[in-house]
Write a structure and sequence with these properties.
32% of the residues lie in helices and 20% in strands. With 330 residues, the protein is α+β, with helices and mostly antiparallel strands. The chain has a five-stranded antiparallel β-sheet. A four-stranded antiparallel β-sheet has the order 9-10-11-12, sandwiched between helices.
Length: 330
């Protein structure tokens, strides 16, 4: 591990000012991803700015009926918060599926959004990786890619984003709030992660030196009737091979509102807008759910080892929407 400096930020402007003068500094929250990457040599910051003590650790209702979540709220506190459990149950389920209790006690909301891919070629500094060293190549294309992307990838990178929490946030139109030296800003989560293209090393739309201060969840009645399901290769805590966040509002057998987002299939949490558009106004039937999933997955471009993800996601969508429909009619 490279030697680094350390300091604790006392306020948000002070934290932002450090990165304004030292582009090799990094913000440190729980460190559950960053410190691992520092140990392997992937990340080599000159200085860490600890932001855990900043006043960003609250979950609060907004005036319009949504929720505001501070960036230093731990994953454990987010999952346990009664308003999150009541208004956005899929978010609680996603966070609980994401890691062990020990990690959830350390990991923060802001850090979760910024965690980097678990692709083995990215985390191994002896291997080429366009995300780590632009222009060096993507050996996953012809190597081990069983758990890599089937949507939105490119010849430059087929890695997936590992966040479970992010999938639920994508389904509920979360907005990321941040602070820069020029003042506050915000960006919808739908625009937060940049397309892979030829520049997979450019991962988010955050301005240089920006500090994530929180997320905002807008009000959504449909979110109260939601769930998250994660498929992994072992029952112990592991990264998903496919996941779905789903919310459904059915009236008189017709889909009135629906939210769908997929995980472990792209470089970012994948909002299934094609499927959503196909379902609005459609009958709440297994046939309609399958057709909507097929419409979304028609754009999939699986590699030789990960074609299984297409039927996996299709079956997840059909099963989850079917269960939510049954609950709605009880």
């Amino acid at each position: 591990m490279k030697e680094f400096g350390y300091e604790r930020a006392l306020d948000v402007p002070g934290a932002v000012a450090v990165l304004g003068t030292d582009p090799d500094a990094r913000f440190l929250g729980g460190g559950t991803n960053l410190v691992d990457l520092m140990k392997s040599g992937v990340e080599r910051p000159a200085r860490l700015v600890d932001v855990r003590e900043l006043p960003l650790g609250r979950v609060e209702p907004t005036e319009d009926g949504g929720l505001r979540v501070g960036a230093t709220v731990t994953n454990s506190d987010l999952a346990a918060h009664p308003e999150v459990r009541r208004r956005y149950p899929a978010l609680t389920q996603a966070v609980l599926a994401g890691a062990s209790g020990q990690l959830r006690n350390m990991a923060t909301v802001g850090g979760n959004l910024l965690q980097r891919t678990r692709c083995g070629y990215f985390t191994d500094v002896t291997k080429a990786c366009n995300k780590r060293v632009p222009g060096s190549g993507c050996p996953a294309l012809t190597g081990e890619h069983r758990n890599h992307a089937i949507l939105g990838a490119s010849d430059a990178c087929v890695a997936t984003h590992p966040s479970d929490m992010g999938v639920a946030l994508a389904a509920f139109d979360a907005v990321v709030r941040y602070e820069t030296a020029d003042g506050p800003g915000e960006v919808p989560l739908a625009d937060f992660y940049l397309p892979v293209g030829d520049t997979p090393h450019l991962e988010t739309a955050l301005p240089a030196g920006a500090l994530i201060t929180g997320i905002t969840l807008p009000p959504a009645r449909v979110a109260a009737h939601s769930r998250y399901r994660k498929v992994r290769e072992r029952a112990s805590y592991a990264f998903a091979i496919g996941s779905v966040a789903a919310a459904l509002d059915v009236e008189d057998g017709v889909v009135r509102d629906v939210r769908l987002a997929f995980g472990a299939v792209a470089s970012r949490p994948w909002r299934a807008r094609v499927a959503e558009r196909a379902l609005i106004g459609a009958p709440a039937t297994e046939e309609a759910f399958a057709a909507a999933a097929d419409a979304e997955l028609a754009a999939a471009q699986p590699l030789p080892q990960n074609g299984y993800k297409v039927p996996l996601l299709r079956n997840l969508v059909v099963a989850m929407l079917g269960e939510l429909t049954q609950e709605a009619t009880k």
